[in-house]
Every structure is written in C-alpha cells, then in structure tokens.
Amino acid sequence: MLSLRNAARHWTWTRLASFAFTLLAVAFLGLMLGLFVWQSLPAWKHAGLGYITGKTWYFRQQEFGALAMIYGTFVVSAVALLLAAPVGVGAALFTAEVLPNRWRLPVKAAVELLAGVPSVVYGLLGILFLRNWVYDGLESFDLLSGDTLLTAGILLAVMILPTVMTLSDDALRAVPATQRRAARGLGLTRAETAILVGFAQSWRGMLTALLLALGRALGETIAVFLVVGRRDNALPESFYSIPPLVEAGQTLTSKLGGSETNIAYGDPLHWAAIVGLALFLLSIVAGISWAGARLMRRKEECDAPLA
Amino acid sequence: MIESTLVEKIDGDKAGQYILETRDLCVFAGNRKLLQDVNLRIVPHQVFGLIGPSGAGKSTLLRCLNRLIELDHGLRVEGEILLHGRSIYSSQVNVDHLRVRLGMLFQQAVVFPVSILKNVLFGVRHHRAVPRAEWTSAAEQALREATLWDEVKDRLQDCASKLSLGQQQRLCLARTLAVNPEVILMDEPTSALDPKSTQAIEELIGQLKTTRTIILVTHHLGQAHRLCDEVAFVSNQSGGIGRIACSGPVAAILESTDLPELKDFLCSGKDPVVTCCVDGE
C-alpha cells in the first residue's frame, strides 16, 4: 500500500509530467506559428494588404492575391454548413427525442463510423457520383464540368454531417430528462417539448457542433481538391452572383495541396506566399475552434432564450 | 373499521360524484407486475393522500392518473381510469389536453432555465388558451395563488434558478396552476425542502383544495394527517407487488388500524402524530 508521502510524490510527478507535455504542445504550436509568420514575411512585404485583397494570383508574374481562394474557401464552407446544419440538427432531434434508446445507440454508432471514413474515399465518391449529378442537375447553367465550388460544398456537407449530428445529439441528450417530463406534464406535445425544451436548451451545444464542423470544412483538403476544379482567380462579378458557385474554383486547401507548392519551394517569394496561405488558414481554423471551445464552456443560468 | 379498498369505503350516495376513479388498475414492467388491482374513488375538492413504503408504487400510480407513465418505456397499464366517469384511455382523449387537466408537481422542483415570468407562462403560452394580452395577468394570478407574487413581483425577469428551492417548488406549482388544472398530482412535493418551505407548501395545499382536487404522495405521516381528507395505503408486502391495502378517512387509517403491514409502516414512521403504535402495543 502506498504511503501518503509516496502518494504525494506520485501526484507531483504526474502533475509535473502533464505540465511538461502541455508546455511542449503549446511550445510546438507557438514554434509553428512563429515559423509560418517568419517564412511568409516576404509575401506580406511584397504585396502588403493586397496579399489578402488582391484578386489575381499569377506566380510567374509574382502577383500574389489570395482573395479568390479565400472566397472559394468561404463559399464551399458556407454551402457545406447550410446543407449540413438543418439535416444534421434535424437528424439529431430525431435520434435524441424520438428514437428509443435501443435504436438510438446503433444509429449513433453507425453515424460516428461515417465520421471516420478517410476523406479521400469521399473524394473518390464525389468524382464517381456527385460530379456527374451536379453536371446533369444544373444543365441549364451550361456547366463546363461537374467540378465546381458547389460540388465541393455538397461533398463537404456529407463529410461534416456526422460531426454535426453526433455532437448535436450529445447536446440534446445533455438536457435533463426531468425537464422534458415537466414539459410533458404541462401538456406540451412531444414535438413542442423537443423544440421548446430540448432544442431551446441545447442550442449552445449545437452551435458548437456547427463551429467544430466548420473548422473541419475549412481545413479539409483532399476531398475538396478532387472535385473543386482548382481554377485560379475565379471570383464573382458581384457578391450575389451565382455563376462562380457553379464553376470551377480554388480554395486555400486545394491550392496548398496542389503541385504549385512543390514548385514554390525553389522561389523564396513564391514559397512565402504559399506559407502565408497556410498561416491564414491556420488562423481561421484556430479562431473557430477557440470560439467553439469558449461557447461550450460558457454556461449561463438562463440559457434557453428560444423557449 | 377499515375496508380493503376505497370502493367499499365511500358511501353509495357519493357514486357519480367522483372526479377520478380507478378500476382494477394494474401496471406491468415487461412480465413483472408493479401494481395490482388498484381501485380508488376520489371525490372533488379534497386532498387525497397516497402513503406507503418506498418502492410500493405510489409514484407509479400517480403517474398513471395523467398518463405520464407512458413516457417510461417498457411499462404497461391495464384496467380503467375514469375522469368524470369517462375513461382517460379512450381513443377520443387527447393525452396532452388530459395532462393540462391533471397537472403534476414533482418531487424535485424542475424550473426551466428561463425567467420567472417565462416559467409561469410556459404551459399557458403554448396551449394558447389565454390571449396574449392576458398573459401577464394570468401569470400574476397563478403566482398569487401559489403565494409567490409578493416575493417575485419586482424580479419577474430574473432567472428562475436564482430562487430558493422552496420558491422554485412554489414556482412549479404556479406554472401548473396557470394552465388551470382540475386535479393536481403531487409527488412528495416537500421531500427536498426545509421546514419553512414545507410549511409554506402545506398551507398552500390547504388553500388549493377549495378550488381543486389534490392527490398527494407523501412519506410524511404527519403531513398526511394535517393535509389529507382521505388516504390510501399502498403496500408491497405481497410478493413486492403494490396494491391498495386499505383506504378511507385519514383519521381512521392513521389512528386505528389492525392491518399488520400498515401498523409496521406507521410504527416505522418518526412522526408523533401517529398513535396506533402506542395503541397497538
């Protein structure tokens, strides 16, 4: 049996070790960020703010404007979220509020398995089916091919759907059963209870689920790479124009995953521009993850404003 | 003399005046019987108590009365429950409307994480029985009826969870009263409260019975003695199956019985109001 002194020492070592590993992780992240900032400095010096707002990217002419890629990333993620949010939340409402436990758990396990499917597999399915469906379905737009921002968005929606659904389901199930029972005791129907108690009290968890899914959507590379078309400088004439959505485009990740990254390594300025894209992507994903984590932690007493 | 069920206990001339009646009510969990042949008749504007040991099925019986038991998967109800002489299991009965008529107050105060006002109006807002313009006055009336108005009238927009446990329980009662139920089912509503809050709830129950019928599950024999007009003793001594061992006017049940299982239960109570222990030994 451990003496108290041994227990204390054991605890101290555990604490020290965990502190050291945490410090290591933070130091690694800091080092990575520092490296990216340092490596991308030439691009910022060369283009200034135009690096973010510039509409053209011609590396041979040393023009590095990332706006089209930022736009592509935004559009693809927005399409994915717009499609995945209602379906995922709706499915979660069904599994958490309607499905009996003996069915809910197998369904949830199957959905969580879907989240583990490698993204390249989704990409191949996208090439096999989705690309053709988009091409045939949007015939009236006279598409050049089925590789479009919309195709990438739909594919991403399918990919993030399990994340949205399973985290939303967890958020709904975290609402105490006593709350539902009290609502049913007041004569509310099952549907009213699901919305006014379940949904109203778990909206914060659902929003977190959407943010985490958005983080995944923004960072997804290979599946998007395979179906997005990878056309540089595809920007709409106006913000509301539809055509660029159904045309080939480029996202930050598809740019970084392409062969240009290998070419760029030989030219310090080009390389700096490429690393700058990675830094930008990393910052957005980190910001979203931070917001998600903050939202999850924050729990207010009156937390059902929708009820 | 204590009869085996309330059916025999109540005078024949009361027939037809019962607000609630159970006939051969049985509850099953799979193949296991939880409650057997429960026959009760409850007259309006009284406090009817359900007493008995833990696990005897009092709360299960209570949840049968407004069909809230249907939320527990795997439980099956047989027999009949009549509200004003009409079966609550009839296909014409809307179960959600039924639960409005038979409101429920739980053992633990369950307030929703919204303001005090929204809590009171939670049922009212969604039943649309009260016009929107009258919501505030409906809330005030319910809070007054629950004797909570004076304590919360200046902070109706505050979060309900900031109230004390006793106030939260009265808020739950106000929320139930706001939808204007005929019967209020109370499942040990004071078991988690301090003596002062318990007294407040007890006084409230005494006032409420003039306008409503109350069915009260309680372990507290003194409380049953103070509040109830009639009680039924739910026993599970016959193979763990709950049944009504005896029922009748509260004084008759608590003060003079020769039923051994009831005597065991009464003697195990700490309440000095029960004298049968002394009488019997």
Characterization of this structure:
Chain A has 307 residues and is mainly α. Chain A is 73% helix and 1% strand. Chain A is globular, with a radius of gyration of 23 Å. The N and C termini of chain A lie far apart (54 Å). Chain B is built from 13 helices and 10 strands. Chain B is of the alpha/beta class. Chain B has one domain: P-loop containing nucleotide triphosphate hydrolases (Rossmann fold), CATH 3.40.50. The radius of gyration of chain B is 19 Å and the shape is globular. The A-B interface holds A 100-101, 178-189, 192, 196-197, 201, 301-305, 307 and B 66, 68, 71, 73, 96-100, 103-104, 106, 108, 110, 112-115, 118, 122-123, 126-127, 159-162, 172, 175-176, 179.
How is the secondary structure organized here?
The complex is a heterodimer of chains A (about 300) and B (about 280).
Chain A: H1 4-47, H2 50-53, E1 57-58, E2 63-64, H3 67-98, H4 101-115, H5 119-137, H6 149-173, H7 177-185, H8 190-219, H9 222-227, H10 252-257, H11 260-264, H12 268-297
Antiparallel strand pairs in A: 1-2
Helix pairs in contact in A: 1-12, 3-6, 3-8, 4-6, 5-6, 6-8, 7-8, 8-12
Chain B: H1 6-9, E1 20-29, E2 32-42, E3 47-51, H2 58-65, E4 75-83, E5 86-87, H3 95-101, E6 102-105, H4 116-120, H5 122-127, H6 135-145, H7 149-152, H8 165-178, E7 183-187, H9 195-208, E8 213-217, H10 221-227, E9 230-238, E10 241-249, H11 250-255, H12 260-268, H13 276-280
Parallel strand pairs in B: 3-8, 3-9, 6-7, 7-8
Antiparallel strand pairs in B: 1-2, 1-4, 4-5, 9-10
Structure characteristics:
heterodimer; A: 307 residues; mainly alpha; MetI-like fold; B: alpha/beta; six-stranded mixed sheet; 10 strands; disordered C terminus
At the first level of CATH, what is the class of the domain at 68-255 in chain A?
Mainly Alpha
SSE pattern of chain B? HEEEHEEHEHHHHHEHEHEEHHH
User: What is the rounded Rg of chain A?
Assistant: 23 Å
Query: How many β-strands of chain A, per DSSP?
Result: 2
CATH superfamily of chain B: P-loop containing nucleotide triphosphate hydrolases
Which shape of chain A, going by the Cα principal axes? globular
Helix/strand structural class of chain B:
alpha/beta
Q: Spans of chain A of 5+ residues with little confidence (pLDDT < 50)?
A: none
Helix content range of the residues of chain B, please?
Answer: 25-40%
| Largest interface in this structure | A-B, 24 and 31 residues
The CATH superfamily of the domain at 68-255 in chain A appears as MetI-like
Terminal Cα span of chain B: 19 Å
Specify the helix fraction band of chain A. Answer: over 70%
